[in-house]
Design brief:
elongated; 2 domains; de novo design (two linked rop proteins); OB fold (Dihydrolipoamide Acetyltransferase, E2P); four-stranded mixed β-sheet; binds zinc ion
């Protein structure tokens, strides 16, 4: 058994017993792990504030290779993201990214770049104003790239022609689009040129800039549908994100 010290983001948690909780934590050094936080639900918990979803923590835990569930020993709160938690839309968008990681990332595969991105994303969600869903699109777009299936937003998969203002047809399995001409023969999800422009722009933008987007509702719907379809094609057992249903439900 090893005693490990790392940084983590709590993706979700659920009750194990009267006083204890199980947490799914995405750690910087050891990837996604599950830990038991004994006494976390008791009145004098030493983990106070550190075992809630979205919390960014320093943590020490006992790791036993033969177990799926490790034992949490100590935590220290780095950021509880107070402003996110005080707002339903921010909470739903913050949780959507955590839910995506919880479902899509394989256990115990470290990915420090992805860890740094979720930390930056939650920090931005806590501080930025404007169109916050733009930050989620940034996260989703870059996440796809980090998982190794970055789509091509600017060229037709078949003829290589520039997609431009005419838009195209999205093929999630092939990781890209067909131009209008090629797509009219093979089909796919129709995507407008303006939508592609945003997706292409997000690839090169800074995370903080993403909240400056102000997309019309038709375009929003296309991007939402495109990401949903993409994740469900490439991630096993993926269903629409529950946190996003909450966000859409409050008119986000
Ligand atoms: Zn083409």
């Amino acid at each position: 058994m090893a005693i490990l010290k790392t940084e983590g983001v709590v993706l979700r948690g659920w009750r194990l017993s009267e006083t204890s909780k199980i947490l799914s934590v995405f750690t910087r050094d050891h990837g996604k792990i599950r830990v038991v936080a004994k006494g976390a639900l008791g009145p004098k918990s030493k983990f106070r504030g550190c075992v809630e979803s979205l919390a960014h923590i320093d943590m020490i835990y006992y790791d036993k290779r033969t177990r799926d569930l490790q034992l949490l020993s100590q935590t220290d709160l780095k950021d509880g993201h107070i402003r996110i938690l005080g707002n339903t839309a921010r909470t739903a968008l913050g949780l959507a990214a955590c839910e995506l990681l919880d479902k899509a990332v394989l256990a115990e595969e470290p990915n420090p770049a992805l860890f740094d991105m979720i930390v930056r994303y939650l920090g931005t969600m806590n501080e930025a104003d404007g169109f916050l869903e733009g930050c989620l699109w940034y996260f989703e777009g870059h996440f796809i790239g980090m998982m190794g299936y970055q789509p091509t937003w600017d060229r037709c998969l078949d003829c290589g022609g520039s997609l431009g203002a005419g838009g195209g047809f999205f093929l999630p399995v092939n990781g890209g689009l067909l131009c209008r001409e090629c797509g009219s023969r093979r089909g796919g999800l129709r995507i407008e040129g303006e939508t592609l422009e945003i997706l292409f722009w997000l690839q090169g933008a800074a995370l903080e800039e993403a909240s400056r987007l102000n997309p019309p509702s038709g375009l929003k719907a296309e991007i939402r549908k495109m990401f949903d379809l993409y994740f469900r094609t490439h991630i096993e057992h993926m269903r629409p994100l529950k946190s996003l249903a909450v966000y859409y439900g409050i008119g986000g």
